[in-house]
Design a protein that fits this description.
Blueprint: E1 10-13, E2 18-22, H1 33-39, E3 44-48, H2 63-76, E4 83-87, H3 90-100, E5 105-109, H4 116-130, H5 134-144, H6 154-159, H7 166-172, H8 174-178, H9 181-193, E6 199-203, H10 209-218, E7 223-226, H11 234-237, H12 239-255
Parallel strand pairs: 2-3, 2-4, 4-5, 5-6, 6-7
Antiparallel strand pairs: 1-3
Helix pairs in contact: 1-12, 2-3, 3-9, 4-5, 4-9
């Protein structure tokens, strides 16, 4: 357990069952506004900024330390057993949270748990990422995030929340770059194996058979939905559909 935690900047709106939203790398809690605006009449919605993002200061931190900071932030708000929602990299954070702290459910927004291929790719890119060619090297990854594919005005609104910095990306990818892909995969799998609450994965594309089977093998009873053609920002590509699916999942969790 980390000795120190970073208080996370947050928004808190609405009342009712609690949903906690954690954004992906380079973004901020502002990306969740289209979703929380659709849910705050029925749920208490808390969205946070990761360290180094939005209004949370400080350098990047190991993901388990961020999960601990999230727990301290929610404890200060007297929040217990939330449904935790993570997009992209934040799926690892909310999974670590659910594996360790009292949680009602987990929602994975477009993050396969078979991370080994991505880790291998990033490690091949390491020299360029660490050098003056960072912007050029990161550009294909930026494009894969799918912001450019969102309809207007959502596209410009989300782009305005994004901050791509070399120190931020490399800081959050430090573990990915330091461990072998096999070691990293074993660690992710161990976290997934420890999740014992309802789990919903919403993917913006059709998963490969390998990725789908990997998720089912490590998260018992996972509900997997594939929304082909919606891309990595699947929650923002179809905010009405996503918000209603999330609302149904939270209600189902409360009934268990």
């Amino acid at each position: 357990m980390p000795d120190r935690t970073t208080p996370l900047a947050y928004n808190q709106e609405g009342s009712g069952p609690v949903i906690v939203f954690v954004h992906g790398l380079t973004f901020s809690r502002a990306t969740w506004r289209p979703i929380t605006a659709r849910l705050a009449d029925r749920f208490q919605c808390i969205s946070v900024d990761l360290p180094g993002h939005g209004e949370t200061p400080g350098p990047p931190q190991p993901l388990d330390a961020v999960a601990h900071s999230l727990h301290d932030t929610l404890t200060a708000l007297r929040i217990d057993r939330p449904v935790v929602v993570g997009h992209s990299m934040a799926v690892a954070i909310v999974s670590m949270y659910a594996a360790k702290y009292a949680t009602t459910g987990v929602v994975n927004v477009d993050q396969p748990l078979n991370v080994r291929p991505f880790a291998e790719m990033v490690q091949r890119m390491a020299p360029a990422l660490h050098g003056d060619g960072f912007d050029l090297a990161f550009e294909p990854i930026r494009q894969s995030m799918g912001v450019d594919a969102l309809p207007a005005p959502m596209r410009s609104q989300v782009a305005a929340t994004q901050t791509i910095r070399q120190d931020l990306v490399l800081g959050y990818w430090a573990e990915l770059l330091a461990e072998t892909p096999a070691e990293l995969q074993r660690r992710i799998d161990a976290v997934a194996d420890a999740i014992a609450v309802p789990y919903l994965a919403i993917m913006g594309q059709t998963l490969s058979d390998v990725d789908r089977e990997h998720l089912r093998r490590h998260v018992r009873g996972a509900q997997i939905e594939e929304w082909p053609g919606r891309g990595h920002m699947v929650h923002l590509a179809e905010p009405d559909r996503f918000a209603e699916r999330l609302a149904a999942f939270v209600r189902d969790c409360a009934d268990l």
